[in-house]
Amino acid sequence: MSAPRAVCLLSGGLDSSTCLGVARREGYDCYTLAFDYGQRHRIELEAAARVAKSFGAKEHRTMNIDLRAFGGSALTGDIAVPKHSSADQIAADIPITYVPARNTIFLSLAMAWAELLESSDIFIGVNAIDYSGYPDCRPEFIAAFETMANLATKAGVEGRTHLRIRTPLAKLGKAEIVGLAQHVGLDFALTHSCYDPLPGGRPCGHCDSCLLRQKGFLEAGIRDPLVDLP
User: Fold this and answer.
1) Chain centroid to CA 182: how far?
2) CA 150 – CA 114 distance, rounded (Å)
3) How far apart are CA 140 and CA 127, in angstroms?
4) Residue 156 and residue 149: Cα distance in Å, rounded?
5) For the whole model, what pTM was predicted?
């Protein structure tokens, strides 16, 4: 029998890369999907392609959607990325790096590909503990989208598939994600997490994403190879 197929959203960051590793460990043939949505840099797209190849994805696609048309985020507009000296300074409210409707758009396109592939599973690396305030990473959002997806597709209405939005990292903190990533064989050096990298791709070390990553590796007792970049 052929392996089941899964569509895996892949940004090239720690979370989505770990999620892909989990899907591969569970025996899925993985079809990875990245987005060039007008973000501040293309480094994460290069990382996504590297990670997809390392885990033997059946197919990797990068879709172009220019969310700069709306802006409203430090990742898609002319707004400075907030920087801090420690993770303790990260605010609890929704940060300016939130991109309006991003996960809704990404999941909708993943849903379309999953239907064409006759896949019942979409993997997304959201987590609800160290999720830095993003509303579209919450379990309530994921559950609502899954319900909608099964009402919105021909395959769902005809009963040929029941789409599941898989969130294996949902209840994990960043240190637990780092440990799981190591367990599934993720090469950390292939990933990229920084919102505002320095020339050459070196992480800035002070944006929310960098600080949460640093906190996770420190608490997990694992060295992050990206810290040692020249």
Assistant:
1) 17
2) 12
3) 12
4) 8
5) 0.94
